[in-house]
Amino acid sequence: MLRATGTYWALGAAGASFVGTFFVIPRFKDSFKEDLEWRDIYEALSSTGVKQLEPKEAYAKCKSGSAVLLDVRLGNKYEASHAACSLSTPLYNPIQKWDLPSTLRRAGFAFFGIYGTELNTNFGDDVLSRVPKGKQLVVMCENGGSLENKSGTKYGFQSRSLKAVYFLQQAGFKNISYVSGGIAEWRREQLPMAQGPEDPAAVPGLSSSSSSRDEDDDDDISGGFRVGGLRLPQLASVFSR
């Protein structure tokens, strides 16, 4: 009896999976797509040229305070382990809504064993609220990606750091590069790592009151920067992609 019940449950689950995969999910396939495809981002970045930095060079810049090292991975990954002098502003966040398309997105990601995320549409503004436009930015993700075409590729190797560079350019930042090999290469080269929430005070040349103002703006900022009349808080714990 128990064996028969288990068989029915297995058949039912297989049937539900089949229906969902081939009939329900395709009806909402547009909800799995981002508004901007990687091909478009690749072509935009290729036309402007984006410099990649080796991890040691990126570390030297963030240690000296000449650049801000920006980690765009999920917040929980950042808290688990990150470059010692980096700030966290995730490019992706966990899926927030529970409507049918969002639930299907979760199910679709789960089917492939992937954590369900969605693009952080406020990413550019989030960075602008913390880093002056005139500051050099070095972006880091898990593996870095590349705009070079190798092994027959046509559009390089996409990554979150390259996508982040594109959105930062759209937000008005000019001096942006990314870490070749990402945090994975950083670890392989045994550069300093840290754990837990970010500490902006640990980033040379950048305080928690940094603003979206250009560095050559001569207004008095001794009282700290406010956006929309609110003082910007320190990000203690963020979850994202």
TrEMBL record:
Protein's UniProt keywords contain Repressor: no
Record InterPro entries: Rhodanese-like_dom (IPR001763), Rhodanese-like_dom_sf (IPR036873), Str14 (IPR043186)
Alphabetized Gene3D superfamilies for the sequence: Rhodanese-like domain
Keyword Protein biosynthesis among record annotations: no
Pfam families named among the record's database cross-references: Rhodanese
Ranges for region Disordered: 194-227
Record CDD domains: RHOD
Domain Rhodanese stretches: 63-195
Parts of the chain that traverse the membrane: 6-25
Record keywords: Membrane, Transmembrane, Transmembrane helix
Protein name (record): Rhodanese domain-containing protein
Organism encoding this protein: Tetradesmus obliquus (Green alga)
